[in-house]
Amino acid sequence: MLLFLFTVEIVMAVENYSIRQEELRQAVTSAVYTALEMSVTEPEFVEGRVYGNGDEEYLNGRMKECFLNALQVLIKSDSHIRVSIQKADYKKGILDVDTEAEFTYHNGKTGYISYRKTGILNEKGVVR
User: Fold this and answer.
1) How confident is the model at residue 51 (pLDDT cuts 50, 70, 90)?
2) What are 63-82's pLDDT values in tens digits?
3) pLDDT in tens, 14-42
4) DSSP readout, the chain?
5) Residues with Cβ within 8 Å of residue 33, at least 6 apart in sequence
6) Which end of the chain is least crowded, N or C, by CB within 10 Å?
7) CA 4 to chain centre
8) Which residues pair with 101 in a beta bridge?
9) What sign does the dihedral 72-73-74-79 (CA atoms) show?
10) Where exactly are the structural domains of the chain?
11) What is the pTM assigned to this prediction?
């Protein structure tokens, strides 16, 4: 009976970890793509890129805001997310983020998952 309980606890922990890992991976990837696509479609970014009249620091900050807003909407779990934006450059079409999620297992222990994503726009405006 004790072996059965340990087995169930292990299976639940692995499943919890896998679900949170997949949620973080999908949310970060989607948020990076959303922010980069916005930097190609939003008029303030396009004008800043074409005419050079945009404040680079401001527009890079707007790209970061877009990423954070999209991530906040996409994360549905009760994980605590820490985000470190390594590089944001709307002119070059680069967004590099490092994230870490902290969550609690069923037994009360804390688990951590990290995921890093770099999105780059090519000359056609396609994110890869």
Assistant:
1) low
2) 999 999 999 999 998 889 99
3) 898 999 999 999 999 999 999 998 888 88
4) -HHHHHHHHHHHHHHHHHHHHHHHHHHHHHHHHHHHHHHHHSHHHHHHHHHS-S-HHHHHHHHHHHHHHHHHHH--SSPEEEEEEEEEETTTTEEEEEEEEEEE-TTS-EEEEEEEEEEEB-TTS-B-
5) 119, 127
6) N
7) 37
8) 81, 113
9) positive
10) 2-120
11) 0.84
Token pair, residue 29, equals: 């990837």
Output the pLDDT for position 127.
Answer: 61
d(CA 20, CA 45): 33
The encoded tokens of residue 111 equal: 């688990």
Instruction: Give me 124's structure tokens.
Output: 């056609």
Question: What is the reported pLDDT for 5?
Answer: 85
